[in-house]
Design a protein that fits this description.
Elements lengths: L2 E6 L8 H14 L4 E6 L1 H4 L6 H17 L8 E4 L5 H10 L4 H5 L2 H10 L6 H15 L5 E3 L5 H18 L7 E3 L34 H9 L17 H14 L3 H7 L5 H28 L1 H30 L6
Parallel strand pairs: 1-2, 2-3, 4-5
Helix pairs in contact: 3-12, 4-7, 4-13, 7-8, 9-12, 10-12
The protein binds adenosine-5'-triphosphate and magnesium ion (MG).
Enzyme class: ligase
GO molecular function, one term: tryptophan-tRNA ligase activity
Organism: Streptomyces xantholiticus
Length: 332
């Protein structure tokens, strides 16, 4: 089986609809076809200031949501990044293989440091894409399910894998991004020119999966569309409506063509009312399942401990091989 690897940050409490459609849904699907590793990336979370109690709670909350979304610990390896020390260890190696200029070209760093105030950005935030390289390479991943915003980091991973393999001999699998085009970028409901994002979205444009279902319905119903009345998919001319059609289609399995036909001659109100219902039907059981996992921290922690054990077995083997290739004397 090919390997898949992805990570998600525990920082915002609730995941949002962009995280789910752009990434987590693919995590669930890839369990069937891949030897899949998924982790809550707490090492990445501390690239910006974190309250310790909140970080701890959010890490468990992230894991609970991943399980609620359909990750099955029998069919994938779910773990917390800091439980596997090899991430930081291979991260250092990758830091030493990356050019300063090369790291400076990462647009996510530019965006995020601008948002946090350039002078307050940490070195950790600057090098986080390189830690991500290590995250992926440790598992010899073939496929990395992510949204469009992460494509550049997977490209960096490919470059560094090839660089290491070229200098020291075949060590790492060169991974490919696994990006589902239709859902690679879900947009803010209030401003369909920007991506839905926990840190950049407007509160009304950001659909958190753990919002009260009533709030979710309200956000969908007040989504920004356009002054035209026709319901058709046209990302250029009608970004708001197209975003709603993408969400609707992905959650229900109806094709965009089916939906265009269904809403022919009907107004935006009808589309939004129906989509609000679809969303409520999706988030209601999701919230219940998440809470069930949170109510039983013992089970949750033991799922994560087992996952870490499985992950470590793979990561340790890769790290040992990389250390050996680098010329480190074995410690025994
Ligand atoms: P931030 O704004 O802090 O980067 P985020 O909202 O992008 O946060 P992340 O934790 O960075 O959330 O992303 C987790 C996963 O969700 C990544 O694979 C990312 O590509 C994907 N993702 C995030 N936002 C969207 C979106 N609007 N559409 C599709 N995929 C998304
Ligand atoms: Mg992001």
């Amino acid at each position: 089986r090919p390997r898949a690897l992805s990570g998600i940050q525990p920082t915002a409490g609730s995941f949002h609809l962009g995280n789910y459609l752009g990434a987590i849904r693919q995590y669930v699907a890839l369990q069937e076809t891949h030897d899949a590793f998924y982790m809550v990336v707490d090492l990445h979370a501390i690239t910006v200031p974190q309250d310790p109690a909140e970080l701890r709670a959010n890490t468990r909350l992230a894991a609970a949501q991943l399980l609620a979304a359909g990750l099955d610990p029998e069919r994938c390896t779910l773990f917390v990044q800091s439980h596997v020390p090899e991430h930081a260890q291979l991260g250092w190696v990758m830091n030493c293989l990356t050019g300063f200029g090369e790291a400076s070209r990462m647009t996510q760093f530019k965006d995020k440091s601008a948002r946090h105030g350039a002078d307050r950005a940490t070195v950790g935030l600057f090098t986080y894409p390189i830690l991500q390289v290590a995250d992926i390479l440790l598992y010899q991943a073939d496929a990395v399910p992510v949204g469009e915003d992460q494509r550049q980091h997977v490209e960096l991973t490919r470059d560094l894998a090839e660089r290491f393999n070229g200098r020291f001999g075949e060590t790492f699998t060169v991974p490919a991004p696994y990006i589902v085009k239709e859902v690679a970028k879900i947009y803010d409901l209030q401003d369909p020119s920007i991506k839905m994002s926990k840190s950049a979205s407007t509160p009304k444009g950001l659909v958190n999966l753990l919002d009260e279902p009533k709030t979710t319905a309200k956000k969908v119903k007040s989504a920004v569309t356009d002054t035209d009345t026709v319901i058709r998919f046209d990302a250029e001319e009608k970004p708001g409506v197209s975003n709603l059609l993408t969400i609707y289609s992905t959650l229900t399995g109806a094709t965009i063509a089916d939906l265009e036909q269904k809403y022919e001659g009907k107004g935006y109100g009808a589309l939004k009312t129906d989509l609000a219902e679809v969303m409520v039907d999706f988030v209601t059981p999701f919230r219940v399942r998440t809470q069930e996992y949170l109510d039983d921290t013992e089970t949750l922690d033991s799922i994560l401990a087992k996952g870490a054990e499985k992950a470590r077995a793979v990561a340790a083997e890769t790290l040992a091989d990389a250390y050996d290739k680098l010329g480190f004397v074995p410690a025994k």
